[in-house]
Structure formats: structure tokens, C-alpha cells
């Protein structure tokens, strides 16, 4: 994670940009970057003759060892209890990761960068998901940390950075290119490269080949601004022109350079480029060029993102379904997958907590239906494949992930593990709810945790094919040592799942075996983080594929928060 741009040093504080240790979990390209703005109201007053001079320090938490590391600091604002900090924190955002944050506030009394030399004004803990998932991506929370004192409130607002998601639709043509083929004309194509910080170039796009012409018109193509110039509008873009040869030894015709800023002027005299072949230019005095390439059109498209929907108020509804079949083993025995160890979570508990703690940030009421399947229920011993873990079929909702865990442990004591293992009833249960809200205001995620020995494969496939038309995704976590071939088939990553000749409209199932995540060193925190990362990584794309197919646009976000106007404060 990278902090802020390095600002000028202010008041003796170190540079704000702090680069944490490389985190192997976060080495994928971030889905997006968000900018956090911080304001406070009614901070503690620690100065005798004037008001406090506050600063905000942001800390992030390492996943494995839970150690807090400083991420960055805002500027100091003199003499106010209601600061609106100008300096922002820019963070990578991954839906599938839980990013714990801590905001500490200090009253700055001297130019020392050492925080222990300043008065502590309190702190606030939250997750990045909590900020993003709040209405309008604006979180307001009480500042805590000084017993017996009211420390005021903090408002943190998240804004997705725009350049990450613009795409450009461009079309080029060329005139009078050099003839390279002995018998015919050339078969030209273009290759685009973006320049890197060290002066090297990375290929980012190739056009198609237009056969047998020196005046080609290439098809329009779409490329993200990130791929084209990494969001830097003045970065050099190099374009090479080649003549295609069947044997792969394509002949170089020439090249030119441009930038996103130049291209964005659109079709004009500025966007007609001479194609230069440096070798020819060096040899021939009369050499002018090897032809010209002209930009015909340039259109910017902003991709709507997962966060646009969340900010517009779309809620993610999370349902849990737990496998209570006899193949899990007797819960009172340590060999059972449902063993209730007083000292640590069993595999079911770990999978539930890992996934649930992240998803709950996107659900405003934090009420989750929790179901079980494959057990005999009291008092009459009937077998059920969709029973409420809290014992209330009319209202199977539990409060928060802790409420779900509690209901899970309670039902283990009251039901008898039995069988068979049927998935279709719980999938259909969630599908009934999902089918009643297709306007994009809600999306449903079902987590099935199972030991994997499925009995109703045909019915389950049919349920998944039907559910693929609805706003829902299914996550299956397989626990225990069984072979999970059937689960792999349901995942549909290799072969799209079908039932009675009908194929699923989109891929909505993600399966992972829990055993792949057991950390050899016994670090369960790390194995839970890795599990959550892999099972949740596909959700934003599955969510967007539903919205796109249905043509649902994000609702407008609520108007941005404007803090009450007060006298502008001086800054160091």
C-alpha cells in the first residue's frame, strides 16, 4: 500500500509517504484506489489559552501479526476543534480483503515529529470496507480512548479515484506507408507501448492486421487509461508500425511517439503523425518519412465500478448455510469437523468468520439468515434441508457474524447430524428472495460450508442455472479431507455449468477447499485472510456482470457531505 504523494515537509514532520513492507497478499493489481478525507467535530481542548492544534495519523494493520504501522499523517491545523484536513490518504482498495484502520488524533505542541511529545486527543477504529459500505461512503464515528472524556466525532469520506476506471475508444488510419512486400503492398498493424519510470517500454495494445494496403484503416479499439499510460496523461506513448509476415519476422516500417494528453485533443492537425524509420533517416539525406498515421476518433468512457453501486446504496445480503450431515463426524469427538473446541475455531467456524467479517461491512442492518441442512430436528426427528440455526423458521436472522456463530454452536447441541447432503433447498431459499428484488438495490451472497459429499447433484445444477439469472452469487467452502470433484464441477470455471441442455447465464459459483488454506505454522489469522481473499475476489465481477446484463445503472450517491462553515484556520 502506498501512502500520499510526498508533500513539502511541514513543521518538522517526516515525509508523509510511508511504504509498508511488501505484502504478499496484496501483490495483485488493486481493484481501485480510494481517497480518504478526514474531518472532526468537537475535539477535546488540550490548550489552556487557545484551542487544540490537531493532526490525524492513520495506521494500517498487518494481516499476519496484527501489528499497527503508520500509513501517513495529515497537516496540522492551528487553533480549531473542528478541523477539515486538506491532506488526503490514498489507499488501494480490495473488496476481498479486510483492511483494519486506526485514526489517532493529537494536539501538536511543538515541531517534533515524535508523537509521544504531543497530547493524545483520542482514536477511532474501523475497516476500509466499513467506510466504503456506509451510506454515501461517509462514516461518522465517536472518537474514543480517553476514559471519562467526550472526545468528539470523526467523519471519514471515501472517494474512488477516477483515472483508474476511464477507458478510451480510439481509431487510427495511415497513409502512404512504405511498401515492404515484394509482390503485393504491405500488411500493416500498429503496436502501442507505454513508457515506464525507468525509460523502458511495456507493450499495451496491438491492432489487427489490414492486408495488402499502404493506406489502412484499423478498427476502433478500447483500452483502459491505466493500461495506456498508468493514469499519467503526459507519459510518452510509443507507437510502432509493422508489416505483417506469415513467418513472424514482421518488418519494421517506422514509429512515432505521442501522449494521452495529445491524443485527447481528438481528430485534428495535432494528431497526424509522421512515421519515422531511424535507420532510413540516418542513411538517406532526402528521407522525409515512411508514411503518416492519423487519429480518426477519441472517445473517453468511464466504466461504472462495484463501488459506484455500493455508494448509490446497493446492499449486499449475506446468507450462510452449514452442512449438518453425519459424514462430518460426531461433534463431541476431536476428529469431527464440527468439534466444539473451547480453545480454537473449527474449520466451519473459521470459514464462516473469514468470509462473513468482510461481507458484513456492506450490509447496513447486519442481520444475516443462517441455515443448516442434512440434520434431524427436535422434537420429532424429521430431516430438514433448510432449517434456521436460531430455531425460528419465521425469522432465521442472526445479528452480526457473532450471532451466526452463536446460533451455529447452539444448534450443534440440539440437532442430530444425519443426511443426505442436499444443496438445492438452500440455493432455492436464497433465490426466492433474490427473485423479488431485481432492480439492483440488493445483491445476495450465499455461503455454503460443506464436507463435500453431495447427494442431489442434478437438482443443484438446475438450481444454479436458474439462480444465474438472479442478483446472487454462491460461495462453497469445502472442509475436511474428501475429494471435491463434484464441487469443482459446480464451480463452472472450466466448463460452464448446465442443466437439461440449458447453460448458466453467468458464472455465479466460486468453490475453494479449506485445506489449501491451513497455515503450516498454525497462524489461523493468515489462513482466514487468504481464504477470504480467494473466495470473495470474484464477487465484484459477478455482481457487475449481473448489473450489465440487466442494464442497471448505479443510483446517484447521496449529496457529498459539506461540513458547517467556520473560520478558516492557518496551517503550518
UniProtKB/TrEMBL annotation:
InterPro entries: C2_dom (IPR000008), C2_domain_sf (IPR035892), C2B_Copine (IPR037768), Copine (IPR045052), Copine_C (IPR010734), VWF_A (IPR002035), vWFA_dom_sf (IPR036465). One of its GO terms (cellular component) is plasma membrane. One of its GO terms (biological process) is cellular response to calcium ion. It comes from the Eukaryota. One of its GO terms (molecular function) is calcium-dependent phospholipid binding. Probable calcium-dependent phospholipid-binding protein that may play a role in calcium-mediated intracellular processes. Belongs to the copine family. This is Copine-8. It comes from Asarcornis scutulata. The lineage of its organism: Eukaryota, Metazoa, Chordata, Craniata, Vertebrata.
